[in-house]
């Protein structure tokens, strides 16, 4: 018989982190406790590089978007020179948010409270009536570290961001370059607030143990052997594995002919800017994420000349995952809103010259990942409900969930470093 004991004092954050058992899920407080959530913002989301948008989302000077990282309101804008900048969206007068809309376009940045006015690079231009010795140069908007990698915008709130991001950028850029994201536009964007902790969202994304039963639309093109070691593939999946091996050989040949890297780089633990990148084949027609695997957009990205180039998948911790295909790209990010609420934003990009209704149908383009996102949202809500039960105990990961284990190991390592700093 299971007994329930709910009188045990909550462990300290340090103790909770130190007693994590490798190979098993995290304890319940990691997914629901207010103090752990505050720790996550401080140890993870203000100290690491975060994906926040693609350059296609702010294509022209003055275009901007805003986003909150914990208590930090952030403004990402393309300045008058066309450079992408990130600024704290906090007026230097009395702290009002300068821009309140989620996105838009502006000439100057005008605070709606007392009309302090800033240039798109953050310089203070106008502050009304001030004392004679007032120096405008001392009151620019505070900056946030910002990097653009192959059309992907990353920011870091730390005073000294992790320096290993330079290595990540240099190694991933050759994979991204053929897709020329700087020549794309937004075809669709979907915001979903999932009622679950951000770690459950990321853990769910790092395994496909649940895919066969949970994602029928995705499985038209996603090989069911993903995550299995060669000698651990169940007999029932061997026909799919044979298709995968042939598709992989064809993909490698096409990539070699075009000078495109495809090899796996997997460093999802053991470094601050943990990541994984690999170009892999798709099942079905092998061209795109659609219900039959055929291309969803007639206008291919960049200067790509064939549709059957599989999927280039990139995962970057703590908050993003991407799929780049010959005909379109899908970017996804997770931003924690609270201990049990997470914003998941998915954006579909197509060639800048693609015309809806002629080159692509938006419903067809987005169908697979829209449905997959809905299914994932349901799954993580079920997980959130379960881990809050007094009888929940962290269970063991299956071999094909090794990336989840690595993600949790990375999270614990980075949190431990913060607590000891």
TrEMBL record:
Q: Name one Pfam family in it.
A: Rieske
Q: Which cofactor does it need?
A: Fe cation
Q: Which PROSITE patterns match?
A: RIESKE
Domain named Rieske is located at: 49-155
The record ties this protein, via SUPFAM superfamilies, to: Bet v1-like, ISP domain
Cross-referenced Gene3D superfamilies, in alphabetical order? Naphthalene 1,2-dioxygenase Alpha Subunit, Chain A, domain 1 (3.90.380.10), Rieske [2Fe-2S] iron-sulphur domain (2.102.10.10)
| Protein name according to UniProt | Aromatic ring-hydroxylating dioxygenase subunit alpha
Q: State the taxonomy lineage.
A: Bacteria, Bacillati, Actinomycetota, Actinomycetes, Propionibacteriales
